């Protein structure tokens, strides 16, 4: 079993292996390239397609961006991400259509064991010591707005039409049609017609 296969099988894996470093390196180099270009440069946005798992026809990243693997992330149509998007996609990340990310949003589909020896002292046959990780998927539904400075942790499902308030740390599932916020983030109430802002037109 390869180290990448271990990720998807829910096993502990060693992110320092050359196999995984090579996959990540492609995304890291292309993120650097993306971040170095002017936002009006027509060559900038297509760079995302060179390393992403899948993305819709219409999307925009304000930048800077940082993906860990890139190829483990799958994004639908009409996606928008504001400044400083960080996507730690060791585990797979699935994002639906019409999703908006505010500034400084982090999607963190990776974790380490809590017991120190499991995290830092697991030896392979060749004697090298692993910094062990494991990764749970993140699923974000359609029409979701994740506001600024939010962290979404691995294993979380965010339902369709949900809104995640600024500064939240999302560690549990959020149902469809709810506004949720806090640390830890909790569903607060359903979004209703009373939340309409059409009167501001």
Properties at a glance:
201 residues; UDP N-Acetylglucosamine Acyltransferase, domain 1; five-stranded parallel sheet; transferase; LacA-like; Hexapep_transf_CS; Acetyltransferase
Overview of this protein structure:
Keywords: Acyltransferase, Repeat, Transferase. It holds the Pfam family Hexapep. Its EC number is 2.3.1.-. The chain has 201 residues and is an alpha/beta fold. It has a single domain (3-152), classed as Hexapeptide repeat proteins (UDP N-Acetylglucosamine Acyltransferase, domain 1, 3 Solenoid), CATH 2.160.10.10. 17% of the residues lie in helices and 28% in strands. The protein has four helices and 20 strands. It has helices spanning 3-8, 18-36, 46-49, 116-120, and strands at 13-14, 59-61, 65-67, 73-75, 79-81, 85-88, 93-95, 100-101, 106-108, 122-123, 129-130, 132-133, 138-140, 145-146, 151-153, 157-158, 163-164, 169-170, 178-182, 185-190. Strands 2-5-8-14-17-19-20 form a seven-stranded mixed sheet, with no helix packed on it. Strands 3-6-9-15-18 form a five-stranded parallel sheet. The chain starts with a helix and ends in an 11-residue tail after the last strand. The model has no long low-confidence stretch (mean pLDDT 95).
